[in-house]
Amino acid sequence: MENTHRGLFSVAGLITTAFMLLLVAQLPGFYSTVAIPDDDSGDGYLNTKSFTYYSDLSNFLKKLLLYPTNQLVSNPVIRMSVTISCFALLLFLIFDILAKDNPYGKHLRKREFLIWLILLLLVIIPALWMSQLRLKYSYEPNSDIVGIRQTESAIEMILKGENPYTETYFLPFLNTSDQNSASPVLVNHNPNLPATFLLPAPFYWISLNQTGYYDQHYFYIIFFLLTFYLLGGMTTGENRLALLSFFGLNPFLAKSLIEGTNVIVIFSLLLITVRLIEMKRPLFTGCVYAFATTYSFFLWLAAPFIYLYMRHHFIERKRAYLFFFMSFIIVFCGIMIPFLTWNLHSFWTDVIAFNTGYSDMSFNIQEIPGLGMSNAVLYWACLYNENAFELFWIPIILTGLPGLLWLYHLQKKNNSRAYVFGSTAFLVLVTSFFSRVMFDSHLLLVMLLASIAVFADTSSKISNNCISKDKMI
Predict the structure, then answer these.
(1) What is the DSSP letter of 295?
(2) How far apart are CA 97 and CA 88, in angstroms?
(3) Residue 257 falls inside a structural domain
(4) Rounded Cα gap, residues 309 and 315, in angstroms
(5) Cα–Cα distance measured from residue 420 to residue 450, given in angstroms and rounded to the nearest whole number
(6) Which of 13-17, 135-139, 141-145, 390-394 has the lowest mean pLDDT?
(7) Residues 230 and 271: beta-carbon distance below 8 Å
(8) What sign results for the dihedral spanned by CA atoms 97, 90, 58, 179?
(9) Same domain, 87 and 221
(10) Residue 173 — φ and ψ, nearest 5°?
(11) Residue 252 falls within a domain, yes or no?
(12) Quick check: is 201 in a domain?
């Protein structure tokens, strides 16, 4: 095992320290306040009740430098979480120093336990706290509309036998305190693929029947913990600690999880697909990848690299390809065909035309410029129509296609999981950069995919934990 210590602390120690400090800087409840309506007093007057939520790192540093500590808003749960996490970090760094001279397994389990503890205190508890705010106050500051309210409403519609692509979402948006954030575009369109509301539907049904309440945060937390567990088996030693720290304590992922975006599910579905290939389970692999491709268009970009990686692991098992493609086609068609035949026009308008700009109502690039090429398009006044798309798909093809061919050639030489995730990260970055909109969630997905390529690939050989060759399921 390679010694990854650099100076006093290991790479895992440095990542843990930096990411934990960034996490604390943007924790809900640490310092910022938001006022919400409150008529609990019974006096008939609408008063305000304050609770705390996010603010960005620059504002945090400004407040930390300009105001004394006693002016920070007190939230007992978050303050206690931060206090215990700081103590856990101190213990982690002590064990990290002790392991410097002998990094071959010494104090690994202790440090991993402390990472889990910090993860619980700074990510899981704030996410659950955010869920309780929604339940108690019906308030969702900065929450992602598509990722939370629209998905929950689409689940309700599909369970009632209604088509999520033909119905409007005015009522669920109207019943929230931030009504102004419900743009007419998202009220009338659902731009997501069907699996975004079909996959969490069983969780919705179980939670609603058992507790009478469902929050999409629960679904994201389950996938977050599952992904964190699977990552632990992708490498060993100090690299394992570094990967767990980079993923579990990633402040950008924690923010995404608490606010309610679905990046974690997109990443998790690709990770599960790769792990099933390594376990030699072609039938399950086809099913999971079918859900992945009907959940996010980004995961279509991984198809050629998934195929090459599958060839590497199923080279002596020709029947495995039949099992994979058979299960993939059945599940993919079983999800897509009902919506295509239900109302093809509505599906095409919401999912394809809306995202590409060919719809009468689409993402208005002048309102949502994003982080990529669209900024330059607006600055140089190249946009002849607010729904124009030619300026975007042409550079996507010109850069993405050569990149795809080059990365495909590289993976044929060194067929490892590093190239599966690294190549997918590159294509996601290219397509999102040259698309109409590029959000911070796209950059987060690129970061997570690249982390696997950096930390988790120690060998291109088949894992010793793989299932025997007789398993076809």
Answers:
(1) T
(2) 14
(3) no
(4) 10
(5) 10
(6) 141-145
(7) yes
(8) positive
(9) no
(10) -75, -35
(11) no
(12) yes
Instruction: Report the candidate in 182, 168, 231, 222 with the shortest Cα–Cα distance to residue 199.
Output: 222
> Based on the domain organization, do 177 and 310 belong to the same domain?
yes
CA distance 180 to 170: 12
Token pair, residue 365, equals: 């690039």
Distance CA 391, CA 380 (A): 12
| 390: Cβ contacts below 8 Å, ≥ 6 apart | none
pLDDT of the residue at 345: 87
On whether both 349 and 432 belong to a single domain, the answer is yes
Q: How far apart are CA 1 and CA 46, in angstroms?
A: 63
Tokens describing residue 438:
């590029």
pLDDT for 14-72, tens place per residue?
888 888 888 777 665 444 443 344 444 444 433 434 443 334 444 544 443 333 333 33
Structure tokens at 8: 């006093």
* Same-domain status, 279 and 131: no
Q: Rg (Cα) of the chain, in Å, rounded?
A: 23
pTM of the model: 0.82
What total number of domains does the chain contain? 2
Q: Which residue has the tokens 């495909």?
A: 408
C-alpha to C-alpha distance for 428 and 449, rounded to whole angstroms: 10
* Residue in 165, 170, 168 with CA at minimum distance from that of residue 191: 165
pLDDT in tens, 400-412: 899 999 999 998 8
- When comparing pLDDT for 138 and 141, which is higher? 138
Tokens, residue 163: 């088509």
Q: Count Cα neighbours of 397 within 13 Å in the Cβ-side half-sphere.
A: 6
Examine the domain organization and report whether 152 and 91 are in the same domain: no
The reply to whether 255 falls in a domain is no
Q: In 3D, which of 240, 223, 220 has the Cα closest to residue 231?
A: 240
Can you give the residue range of the structural domain that contains 44? 1-137
Q: Which two tokens stand for residue 247?
A: 């993923």
pLDDT tens-digit readout, 438-447: 888 888 999 9
Tell me which of 179 and 296 has the higher pLDDT: 296
State the CB neighbour count (10 A cutoff) for residue 430: 22
